[in-house]
Amino acid sequence: MRATLYPDELLASFIARNHLLRGHRSIKTTYQSVFHLTAGKTAYDLPSGLKTMLQSEQLKITLDELIHFHTLYPYYKPFWSIQQSRQVKVEMEADKSQRIQMIAGVMASIIRTHKVLKICPLCLQADLEKFGEVYWHRTHQLPGVLVCPIHNCFLLEKCHQCNEDFMDQSIQYPTLPTTFCRNHHPVSEMVRIVENQRLIGLSAFSSYILEGGYSEYNKEQLHAKYIQRLARLGYCTATGRVKQREVREFFLSQYNPQFLTQIAVKIPEDNDFNWLSTILRKSRRAQHPLLHILIIQLLWDTPEKIKLEGESSPFGSGPWPCLNPISDHYQVNVIPHVKLTRCSNTQRPVGTFECPSCGFTYSRRGPDQGRNAIYTIGRIKKFGPIWQGHLDHLSMDRTLGLRELSRFMKCDPKTVKRYLTGSVSVKNEVNKSTDFQQKKKKIKAISNTKKSNAPHIRVNWEVRDQEINKLIIDAIQKIKQREGKPIKLTKARIGRTIGQLAILEKKLDQLPLCKKTLQRYVETLEQYQKRRIDWVINQCTSQKLPLRKWVIIRKAGIGRKYLKEMECYIAGRLNDAV
Questions:
Q1: C-beta of residue 66 within 8 angstroms of C-beta of residue 60
Q2: How far is CA 132 from CA 6, 126, 145, 447, 573, in A?
Q3: Residue 366 — φ and ψ, nearest 5°?
Q4: d(CA 32, CA 490)
Q5: Cut 0.70: pTM above it
Q6: CB of 33 within 8 A of CB of 57?
Q7: What is the C-alpha separation between 566 and 555, in angstroms, rounded?
Q8: CA distance 504 to 492
Q9: Residue 4, SS3?
Q10: What tens digit of pLDDT does each residue of 403-424 get?
C-alpha cells in the first residue's frame, strides 16, 4: 500500500495518512518500517530526513519537488542569503537535524511558530469530494495567514461551539482533519466569509510567495529594491541612509495596531533597534517572511510590482546617454557610471554623468520619475575639449555674431561669452562684460569692508544652549520611563533621540548647560549594570517570582568579567528586599 501526495499537502500530513493507512499503534513504527526514519516528530514547516524518506521508495517524487511543493521552504527562501538557503537545504536532507530552525532564523524571530494546524471548511469539503479524504494544506499554515486565499473565509483552529482544537496536540504526530469536531459539531457550518481587505491581501501575498513568486530573489537583492523604492518615495538619502523615523511613521499610518495584533506582529518601537529598522539596515540576521511581506505591501501595491523596480541607483541602471548636442554620439548610451551626491538644500540625490568620449559632464537631481528623465539636464558642469575646440573653430569666422555662434553651439549666448577665446567679432562685447564684472567685484569688496567693521553674530549660543538642554532633559526622562529592559544613557543615545548628535559632539564646549546635564546623567557601565539589576528585581517582585541570584544575573545580562563587582550590589539589594 502506498499513499500519494496531494496538491499543496504538508509532508507531515502525508506521514499521518500513511500511519492511518498502515494501522500501526505507534508512530515510531511508521517512521522506522515505512520511511526508515529514526527521528521523532516531523516539523511542519522545514522537516528533515527527506533524503532517507525518498530512499524508502514510498514517494515517487524528486527531492526538489518534495522541498518546493510540500514544505514551507519556498516561503522562507527569498528572505535568506544564498548561503543560508544552501545550508537549510542540506539540513533538510540530513537525518535528525536540530539546526534547521536556528539557521533559518525562526528561533530568534519575534514571530512565533504556530503549533496548531489550521483548516479551511470549504477546502475540506472540496478535498473530500475530489479525493475521497481530507488533508492538511501547507498554504493554510503560513504565519499571519488567517484567511483561505481561495475561498476568502476564516481558517479554523478550534470549533466555534465547544472551543475544542481540531488537532490533538497531545499526540506526537498530526492527526488528519475531520469534517466534525470531537464533540460532533459539523465544520461545514463554521464558514465565515472575510471582508477585511488587509487580511485577504496578506493571505494572497503569502500564497503567491509560497508558490514561487519570488524564487529568483535573495535577501540582498530584496534589500536593494527596498532602498531603491524608499529613495523614490523620499524616505532615503542619496547615499542610501534610510530615514528611519519617517519610515516608522509611514508604516504606522498604513497599518493600524488592531491589524498587527491580529496577525501577531509587534508594533515597531520608537528606537533604532526595532524590527522595521533592522530589516531596512541590511542586517546579517535573517528576518521572518511575514515582516518582509508587510514592508513589501507598504512600498508596492501588488507583489508583482517589486519586479519592475530598477537597480538601487535613483537614476536607474546604466549606461546613460551623452547629451553633448554637437557630438556625433548625442543621446547615445555611452556613459557607464554615475557619481551620486546629495543636494544640500533639498536632500535629494544628485547624479553626475561624465562622457568618457568627449568629456561632456552634466548633472541632475533625482530620483528619476520615468525613463525619459535620462534625457534631461539639470546643470552642465563641463562642456569638454570637443565642444571647446568646435567653438574655437567657429569663432575664427568674423562674420558670425554672438547669437549665431550660440545657435550653432546650441547654448545660451552668455555661455559662448564665458568660453570664447581669441574671437575678433565679439571681442568688444567680451571686454565690456569683463569690465562690468570687475566693477561689480570692486563694489562688493567695498560693501564687505563696511560690513566687517560691525560685529556679526550668527548663532545665539546662550539661547540654543537652553533650548537643547530642555530637549536633553525630556529625552532622558523618556528613555528612563521606557517600558522593557533599560537602555544605557549615553551622549550618542541622547543626541540621536533629539536629533542633535552632531552639535553635541562638535560644539559641546559652547553649550555649558548641556554639558553639565550630560555629565550628571550619562551613565558609566557600572551605573547601567546596577540599573538593570534593579529593573530585574522590580520585575520579579511585581510578578511575585522568587528572587534568586542566578536569575538576576542572567536576566540582567551581567557578564563574567563584571560579575565579581556586581555580586556585592546584588547581595545588598536581596537583603533589602527581604
A1: no
A2: 12, 9, 26, 96, 67
A3: -115, -165
A4: 58
A5: no
A6: no
A7: 14
A8: 8
A9: coil
A10: 888 888 888 888 888 887 544 3
